[in-house]
Design a protein that fits this description.
Split_barrel_FMN-bd, alpha+beta, about 170 residues, Pyridox_Oxase_N, oxidoreductase, single chain, oxidoreductase activity, acting on the CH-CH group of donors, F420H2_bilvrd_red/Heme_oxyg, 11 strands, Pnp Oxidase, Chain A
């Protein structure tokens, strides 16, 4: 398994409490790995944003998700692979929100697809079991394309007794 990247955090003092420290990538990566729901933003053909919740797994320095080939997000990704993925909570006084920017790339290797399928089932349970067939996930009588997003930029917004905004460039 590849070693996880450790980019340098940059604290933005304009949006951080006095004395705040940057969130570590280790902590942000833990939140990305542990989140159950992510929000994916893609770009429609007419330039409008398209946002949808989905499940996914963090594996090998990338967030992975799947979608049907006929779904809006798959069509959007065919035309423009740039995405934003977010996760966090909606409480003002506590929590950590993560925003990850990158490019979605189709995963086509059966070996990699099997690893991702195992990660889905390990994280979400047997209800989310996928078989691998011809460069796609197969489950429940449907096929799903699988994408990975390696971050190009990421942000963390920490709330609680101390607020902070951290940025990482990859």
């Amino acid at each position: 398994m590849a070693e996880e990247k450790e980019p340098e955090p940059e604290l933005d003092a304009r949006y951080s409490s006095a004395g705040a420290t940057p969130t570590t990538w280790h902590d942000a990566r833990g939140h990305l790995a542990g989140a159950e729901i992510y929000w994916l933003t893609t770009v429609r053909p007419d330039g409008r944003p398209h946002v949808t919740p989905l499940i996914g797994v963090w594996l090998d320095d990338a967030l992975h998700f799947c979608t049907g080939a006929d779904e809006r997000k798959a069509g959007n990704l065919d035309r423009n692979p740039r995405v934003v993925l977010t996760t966090g909570n909606n409480a003002l006084g506590e929590g950590l929100d993560i925003v990850l920017e990158g490019r979605a790339a189709r995963v086509r290797s059966d070996k990699q697809l099997r690893r991702i399928a195992e990660a889905y089932e390990s994280k979400y349970g047997s209800e989310w079991h996928f078989d691998v067939g011809d460069q796609v996930f197969v489950g429940g009588g449907h096929e799903a394309l699988v994408y990975e997003v390696e971050p190009t930029t990421a942000f963390a917004y920490a709330r609680g007794t101390t607020y902070s905004q951290t940025r990482w460039l990859f």
